[in-house]
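Before a colleague's protein record goes any further, I have to sign it off. Would you go through it and say whether the fold makes sense for this chain? Take the sequence as given and treat only the tokens as open to question. The record follows directly below this note.
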Amino acid sequence: QLDQFAQTIAEAIELAALFLREVKLLEVRREGELVRRIERMDAGEGRLRLKDETGRTASWLLFQGDFAAEAERLREQYAWQIEAKRSSEVRLALPVEQRLQHGRLFAVLPTETRTPLPFHINADFYPTTDRKRIHLEEGYQAEWNQAALLAVAEVLAARLEMLPQELGAEGLWHVLQQVAETERQAQTGDLAPIFAAFWQALAPLLSETALLYTAQGAWVKPAEARLVEGVAAQEA
């Protein structure tokens, strides 16, 4: 099964490369033959490019934040459980061209926890012992992880104004639709309640942000745009 093992690793390294800041190159070889190669290139200003062995590139936006104040409170409350070195930094990786239907939670490397969010999230999460999932139910581990997710929601909200130019109209509205779907699933119990925080962070900003792309090629706020009903109205 070694060929299949090499192929499985080859499929995993592009995703794994997203948050490995000290790693520039990942290669998978089988008996010396190259199976997969991912080069990680920092494009500056929160932009990342991943290049494979064929020359194909994928562009990502990397947003960073932290929950330092809440982390300090949790360390004081759980002084014997939460170690001082555990980082409060959070990062979000949003693809520029690709449209993700499911994002993953990373504890540096990807876990098996998936969400409808159209981006990947990395933090110093507390994973389960098998590292496949993230604690979100109860206890100090869940409180820490929930604080990290809330910080990511705030990071996304803070970057909302830049998304139209970065993603275009279809990309932007894909993000908003997926975030709204995440909130719906959190409300129905299909996801942990903390995931509703992403829509709750964005919703108050939508009416005051230029999110609509008009026929004149301009981005405007919702109140500044009109959607006409039918061909005759459009021609008029």
Remarks:
- Helices lie at 2-16, 68-77, 139-158, 163-188, 197-206, 231-235.
- Strands lie at 25-30, 33-44, 47-52, 57-66, 89-95, 103-107, 109-115, 120-123, 212-213, 219-220.
- The chain has a mean pLDDT of 94.
- The radius of gyration is 20 Å.
